Amino acid sequence: MTGSHRPTFAQCRAAARSITKAEYGSQARDVVRPRGVFGIVRGRGPLPVLLYAAALDGRLVWRGPDSLALLQPPGGRRRPVPGGGARLALIRLVERHWDALLYGVPPLLLLIVAAGLGLIGGPWPVTVALLLVLLAVVHIMALVICLVITAAIWFVRQLARPRTTDEVAAEVMPDQHWSMTLCHHGPGATGTPRDLLRRTTARLSELITAEARQRLLPTGARSTDLVVTETLICLGRGVTTAEARRAVTDWAGQPRPSGSVTLRMSGHRGPEPALRVADTGSFLLWYVTGVTLVVLIEAAFVADWEQRACGTGCDERPHTYGLALRWLSQRLLFTDPWGLSPGTYQAWTVGWLTSLMSLMGVFVTVGAVWQYRAYRQAKIADYRQEREVRMGRTPVMIMVADRIERDAVLAAVHAENGAEPEREFVAQHTVFHLGELENTRLMLVQSEQGAIGPGGAAITAAAMIRRLDPDYLILTGICYGLRPGPPGGDGEQRLGDVLVAKQLRAIGYYRQTDADDRGQIRRGDHVSPSPTLLDRFRAAEVDWPGATVHFGPMLSADVLVDSRDLHDQLLESDPEAYGGEMEGAGVYAAAAPSKVDWIVVKGISDWGHGRGNAQRGPAAENAARFVVHTIRTGALDSPPAAAS
């Protein structure tokens, strides 16, 4: 189990006590242990048993009795768990069918004991046996009556109180997606609720990946690089403390990429527009109430008419209020009670009108059920549409190559959206999910310096493109300039200026020859970044209040340039170049096969000689702020295909 060992049953009992004492413990208990079909009995087993069964299934994210989360597969289906045997089967039976066990086991035990006493014989054993049989019958009948009452109450509530989109989603979506039905982080827990939520994300990915691989085995196939795209439904009432609810709300509000999970929390939206009575089918409840009141009033008139007409010979006529009420209630079924019928035409007329009200009620019921069904489907459609909008945010991956560049991006994004970065460990890399900005989902990935190497830009970009599936890839950070000089002229640069690659020229690939005076013959690609991204960054420069932005060719090689002679050689061999850096060629090499739009945006920290640390931070910050400014304008709200 991610992050911890599997808890013992004693630890699960301690966790159940901690949950019960929590601020919203009773609400959370109602979520994980809802009322069963009989109403007075819970549908799931006791909380310690439920937690222990989830631990055996691997669905319990456990950090301790005061910090845990419970995952539920779609529809509560059983997950194939190796081993366990009869013990696990018994625990599952108690956990999943608690109400059925309470319905059937006590009467069965009573009947077994009664049968044994009957075999013994004698007055007292037989008497006790009959009492036990009676108790068994009473037990069954009591639960059946509770079943009928519970069904009637549920029906009335469904019609009387319209369900919000989130409430309908909380009822329906767990049947279609994984859900977090319980999240408990009490005062005595170590760490923060976010630590628990991060482990929950990781555990969900593990469960889905393991299940997918197990399903692949019979087909003779195997996958070592699965991408998890599940939507996790977070049930707000299942969170036990106010602090944890705030954390879950923030967590669920942050978009997740392809390759992780998309989060949703039910129960935290604002008020919805007022509904008319006809919108939800609740008019059936009003109709039933009206018919009941009419019958109660009619009974008084019928009793008075019959009493006046019959005088003293009223044995088979509804001459009292009780008999009149009984007769009118039977008229709702188009019949008269046995031995009871009116003798006045007024009563007969009222009786037939009452029967017509019952007939009309059939049509009202059909219309109400139809309207409620349409209302419920509309709420589910609203939820799905909102989910599609949330999941439809454009994924943008930002790449950096060192700590200064990483911190500059984190600070620039946080200044705009206030979101705390969420770490996700994907294979050998760490992804920082930076939240939403306009209609984009921002992800930050750090590679090692240079394009080549196990942790270099080429391998890192290729792996993350495959796992995160971004629409745009932006390489930002620091670079060296090749055109130092006072401000004012085209191409003349200052430290801290931002350089956007209009063309990337890979100079690390060349032929060394003695055949002529050329010495080195460059064979690297000269490639252009995404036309869409280049256009968007040009447009963003119009109202950019920061450092000067230059658009021009940029050199890229796996060489840390810190030599005046090399600087001069580079400028002499490529007089059009504006600057150079080390990771761009690797990013291009990874993005081209996947057809991902890419661009390089970096701040000038030096001139390729006399390097120092003083300008690295400001240069990285200027580049990061310009990238964030461009995204803030809405330039990347649409994916490349839609943008073009």
TrEMBL record:
Keywords (A to Z) from UniProt: Membrane, Transmembrane, Transmembrane helix
Domain Nucleoside phosphorylase: 397-623
GO terms for MF: adenosylhomocysteine nucleosidase activity; methylthioadenosine nucleosidase activity
Spans traversing the lipid bilayer: 100-122, 128-156, 284-303, 350-370
Top-level lineage group: Bacteria
Gene Ontology biological-process entries: L-methionine salvage from S-adenosylmethionine; nucleoside metabolic process
SUPFAM superfamilies per the UniProt record, alphabetical: Purine and uridine phosphorylases (SSF53167)
Signal peptide: none
Keyword Transmembrane annotated: yes
GO cellular component term, pick one: cytosol
Annotated InterPro entries: Nucleoside_phosphorylase_d, Nucleoside_phosphorylase_sf
Protein name: Nucleoside phosphorylase
Organism whose genome encodes this protein: Catenuloplanes atrovinosus
